[in-house]
Amino acid sequence: MVVDVQRDFLPGGALGVTDGDAVVPVLNRYLARFAAQGLPVVFTRDWHTPDHCSFHARGGPWPPHCVAGTPGADFAPGLALPPHAEIVSKATTAAADAYSGFDHTRLADRLHARGVRRVFIGGLTTDYCVLTTTRDGLAAGFGVFVLGDAIRAVDVQPGDGERAIAAMLAGGARLIAFDDLEDAPA
Ligand code: VGL
Ligand code: ZN
User: Fold this and answer.
1) In angstroms, what is the span from residue 14 Cα to ligand 2's centroid?
2) 137 to each of 7, 16, 80, 89, how far by Cα in Å?
3) Up-side HSE of residue 176: CA atoms within 13 Å toward CB?
4) Quick one: which of 33, 70, 173, 186 is 20 to 30 A from 120 by CA?
5) Which tens digit of pLDDT belongs to each residue from 6-28?
């Protein structure tokens, strides 16, 4: 699962994450590996209405970002979406936010139906959407592997990213890097 690797979360974007663009080439390596093994890949995207409740104008915590159909909501330049990729849009209604790719998307059901037992999660941001997607993946019964070399944090408070990683591990996720992929436990 590639979580929210969208222009607005890259440096210079509306909710730019330091070094966020660095995940792109790393994710592309994972994507090539998964494609070579015929494994499904899912790209989530934050896909908000212009008046979304998470935006400052509505009293929310964030500047406007990832408004559906705008350039800021596009996937990051250079991100290699394979033709068979599933795209999951989330937080698509004005009244509700959703950080997790599993939130109101029925994604867990679709993955279970395909016999998926393990999910490998990278992208943006470590302390929000990667964290909550990981939690929901664990709660749905998947083994969750967090791609430690392909995530970056917003770090609203310094250390948020590190605390998120600790919380994911405490919840039962495992942290791996590209070179460990072959050794990931079944
Ligand atoms: C995200 C803040 C607001 C994320 C989405 O993708 O992590 N963060 N909306
Ligand atoms: Zn958002």
Assistant:
1) 11
2) 25, 25, 24, 17
3) 20
4) 70
5) 999 999 999 999 999 999 999 99
* Active-site residue identified among 8, 46, 66, 90: 90
Residue 103 has pLDDT above 90, yes or no: yes
Q: What are phi and psi of 2, to 5 degrees?
A: -105, 115
Q: Is 46 in the pocket of ligand 1 (CB under 6 A)?
A: yes
For residue 74, give the CATH number of its domain. Answer: 3.40.50.850
**Structural domain range at position 28:** 2-181
Number of domains present in the structure of the chain: 1
Residue 54 forms part of a structural domain: yes
Tell me the mean pLDDT in the region 65-79. 98
Residues around ligand 2, an ion, CB closer than 5 A: 46
Q: Is 186 a domain residue?
A: no
Give pLDDT, residue 84: 84
